[in-house]
Design a protein that fits this description.
By secondary structure, the protein is of the alpha+beta class. The protein is 63% helix and 8% strand. The protein is built from 33 helices and six strands. The strands form two sheets. Strands 1, 2, 3 and 4 form a four-stranded antiparallel sheet that branches. Strands 5-6 form a two-stranded antiparallel ribbon. Helix 1 runs antiparallel to helix 2 and helix 14 runs antiparallel to helix 15.
Length: 650
């Protein structure tokens, strides 16, 4: 099981002076790359967001009359920016009469370092000198710490508010889903600036209230490049790409972020040719421009053009490499993933991040490449990501897929006894490990232990749990957990759960129950559901239901050679040789051919691969001699091979 991850890249910054140049507010325009690395789906997108929380930075000029105080203020600001907050505090404590700028600098320094409680203690001191900037910094600190109720309370206690104070609180509501509260505050504002309007327009567009966003945009007394860009991004995200293009063409001025937003919009709406055309016309490109275009191509399955663009990049960062790596993971080209990762390490620029490690470890899992996985584990252990729950879960998954169940479990147990807190991702990962190895009872035991630890199972938990029951033949337990999932109501039941339940019944031979369940589904059954039923029919030689499952599966995937093979095997296993031959002939007429099975083993750092009937290996005579000897021994203990399934297999 792989997990989600998010990578954030800072684009351009627009600085807006306020409060007599005493402070500036920095509004970052962010470009987000989000990779859903959960098989079989993969989602990757860029979005433009110009309304994140304001960052308060200290003044470049200090108008303090006392030169000593001014010098101390400058030193405190510098130390705070460098993260040396305790040194800044010592300097502050040694000052005889710190002014309001000093107090604001130290309080802001503690906030920046995530020490919100210490900042509040200073703020609440009787001798504290505060102005509107100090109050606003404290409100912003609570918002950064996701303590919206404390921010709200402090905001209402403010003796004086300026436009930045109002904007900060509105943005806090927007970040925490309080759309109506943000709008209420916006309507109450005594004065607004362009940042106020941009914040609410972006917020409404992000949450799908695009008509309201457009009306506000049209009402704006003045607009800047962020206003136009936010509206274009919102329209694109909501599928109104042509309207977004009209707006883009009307823009009085554009920057590189505006172009990126429009390209992202075309990519999100699967209009790649128009995205590429716009990309070629860009007067200037930055790294996010290239990453945006590559992401769009990968998102739409065009890996070839994405790779061509990637190779042409004048400069690459970690997002560029991770995006490309994830694209190859999506396409199942795990060997290429390792090659790209190796190239990334050989360059002196980008260093792997959490997302990179998760993707590359996923490739190792697919290849069962224990040696490569162990090497990556060594690299991870020298980085700050060694305690990341996402990376640890990917490592656990890798060791599991490589057959190292004990190592996978040890990593999980080490997490329980160390300082690293286990989260739901970790529990889901270890449950999936035992599901993969058919250890259903241990998976159930871990599930119960997870609940006792205070974690509520999610949709991923139940996929692993029901799958574990299926592989271990624990039918009643699997049915019980599926029923529990449906009754929960707070968890979305998706096709993975349906496929697991059909697989559970199919493996146990309860095919009629599986068919009845599929017929009761309110949604159209997916290929995975019909595939699970067909596999059960193959195991239990049920030609009647197998024919139905194959028919439905071929409606969804008409070019799937495996479906024809399974149906043919079902007929052959029941002695219906004419039907079996007819299915094979139909498959041949369509020009379909089953990809031969391949297995491999690594011995002394060398990978040995084998396919059905392969005699190309240098030691093939010895290998086949050993296989014949093994078959002979198996027959002596009573094993009778089912040769039906070998009929015309290659």
């Amino acid at each position: 099981m792989l997990a989600f991850f998010r990578v954030v890249e800072v684009g351009k910054f627009i600085r807006i002076p306020f409060s007599n140049c005493v402070q500036i507010i920095t509004i970052p325009v962010l470009i987000n790359v989000k990779l859903l690395l959960r098989r079989p789906r993969f989602n990757l997108y860029h979005s433009i967001d110009g309304s994140r929380s304001a960052k308060i930075s200290m003044p470049r000029k200090d108008f303090t009359v006392d030169g000593n105080v001014a010098r101390c203020n400058w030193m405190i600001t510098s130390l705070s920016k460098d993260g040396r907050i305790m040194e800044a505090r010592r300097l502050f404590d040694e000052m005889r009469d710190p002014d309001v700028i000093t107090w604001t600098s130290v309080i802001s320094g503690f906030i920046k370092c995530g020490m919100i409680e210490e900042a509040r203690r200073l703020f609440d001191r009787v001798d504290a000198k505060k102005n509107v900037v100090t109050w606003t910094a404290m409100v912003g600190g609570y918002i950064r710490s996701n303590k919206i109720s404390e921010a709200e309370k402090l905001f209402h206690e403010m003796p004086n508010k300026n436009v930045v104070s109002w904007n900060t609180m509105i943005d806090g509501y927007a970040q925490n889903g309080g759309i109506d509260s943000a709008m209420y505050l916006f309507e109450k504002m005594p004065e607004r600036n362009v940042v106020s309007w941009n914040t609410v327009v972006s917020m409404l567009a992000r949450c799908g209230r695009i008509e309201e966003a457009r009306k506000l945009f049209d009402r704006m007394p003045e607009r800047d490049v962020i206003s136009w860009t936010a509206m274009i991004a919102g329209l694109s995200k909501n599928g109104r790409i042509d309207e977004a293009r009209l707006l883009f063409d009307r823009m009085p001025e554009r920057n590189v972020v505006s172009w990126n937003a429009m390209i992202t919009g075309y990519s999100q709406n699967s209009r790649l040719d128009e995205a590429l055309d716009l990309f070629e016309k860009m007067p200037e490109r930055d790294l996010p421009s290239w990453n945006t275009m590559i992401t769009g191509l990968i998102q739409n399955g065009d890996l070839r053009r994405a790779r061509k663009l990637f190779n042409a990049m004048p400069k690459k960062n970690v997002i560029s490499w991770t995006t490309m790596i994830t694209g190859y993971v999506q396409e199942g080209e795990s060997e290429e993933v390792l090659k790209i990762f190796s190239r990334m390490l050989s360059t002196n620029g980008a260093k792997p991040n959490q997302g990179t490690f998760v993707s590359v470890l996923g490739a190792c899992s697919n290849l069962a490449g224990l040696g490569e996985g162990q090497q990556i584990h060594q690299i991870v252990s020298k980085t700050v990501y060694q305690d990341s729950t996402f990376v640890v879960s990917a490592l656990i998954n890798m060791y599991s897929k490589c057959g190292e169940l004990k190592t996978a479990r040890k990593m999980f147990d080490d997490g329980m006894t160390s300082q690293r807190d286990l989260d739901l991702v970790s529990w889901n990962g270890i449950i999936a490990v035992y599901a993969h190895h058919g250890c259903g009872k241990e998976a159930i035991r871990l599930f119960n232990e997870m609940r006792k630890s205070g974690f509520k199972p999610d949709d991923v938990t139940y996929v692993g749990l029901i799958s574990a029951c299926s592989h271990a033949g624990l039918v009643e337990e699997g049915l019980k957990y599926f029923d529990e999932l449906v009754k929960d109501g707070s968890i979305l039941v998706r096709e993975d759960h349906y496929a697991c339940l059909v697989d559970l019944c199919g493996r146990a031979g309860r095919l009629k129950e599986a068919v009845d369940f599929i017929e009761r589904l309110e949604t159209k059954p997916s290929a995975r559901v019909w595939g699970a039923l067909l596999a059960g029919c193959n195991v239990h030689a049920n030609a009647k239901i197998g024919k139905l499952a194959a028919k439905k599966l071929l409606e969804v995937e008409p070019e799937n050679a495996g479906t024809y093979m399974l149906l043919s095997n079902i007929y052959a296993s029941t002695g219906k040789w004419k039907e079996a031959s007819r299915v094979r002939l139909k498959m041949k007429d369509k020009g379909l051919k089953k990809q031969p099975g391949c297995s491999w083993i690594e011995v002394r750092n060398r990978v040995h691969a084998f396919v059905v009937g392969d005699k190309s290996h240098s030691q093939s005579k010895l290998i086949y001699s050993l296989i014949r000897d093994l078959h002979s021994k198996m027959k002596k203990v009573g094993y009778e091979p089912n040769n039906v399934f070998l009929y015309d297999e290659y």
